[in-house]
Amino acid sequence: MARGLFLTFEGCDGCGKTTVLNRVSVLLREKGIPFLLTREPGGSKIAEEIRNVILDKKNTEMDPRCEALLYAASRRQHLVEIVLPALEKGIHVLSDRYLDSSLAYQGYARGIGMEEVYSINLFAIDGMLPDLTFFLDLPPEEGLARIRKNETREVNRLDLEKENFHKKVYEGYKILLENYPERIVRIDAKKTVEEESQEIFDILAKRIMR
Ligand code: TYD
Question: pTM of whole model > 0.90?
């Protein structure tokens, strides 16, 4: 049986990833394509526990390298427990965030260095790069404005970062887009959810059918 595709979704806070992923899921389900939708940090019991430590608003004194290691630890557990078994069964995995989030947030925006963060993540992912990554491109000012308007969204420790941090995250993603043009596909997140989801679905359908 063919292995499933490992597909990751990236973007700044408030770019609409979760909404678009839900819509893409509906389109995949309608076509009877087997897939699993999951998220990082978290996605399994142990990984969710690590997520709670990372995103707890009370943990203001968290050291940047500790934060990067916790994300990598959560990623490892999620990969082994959820992602790999599904892929082996021929199920496509759609992950809301993965490696590139750590490179943009911890590596670039926190200033640890993308290469340093990549190297600790190599240990965690053991060569398991995504087959394809969608970057939902929305300037951070617009993402933050969307978050402020959305009263049902829970505000986490990283949402509370200053505007400058989110600008740096965005710059980090732009660097990744340049460095990995074959793996990362840019999606214009100023479009409607329907347009974005259809664009993503069409790219996925082509890859899946090939
Ligand atoms: P979450 O509530 O899942 O936000 P979103 O819906 O935007 O994905 O919170 C995840 C936060 O963690 C988000 O601000 C991005 C951040 N993050 C990192 O800083 N590094 C990482 O490796 C990952 C996976 C997430």
Answer: yes
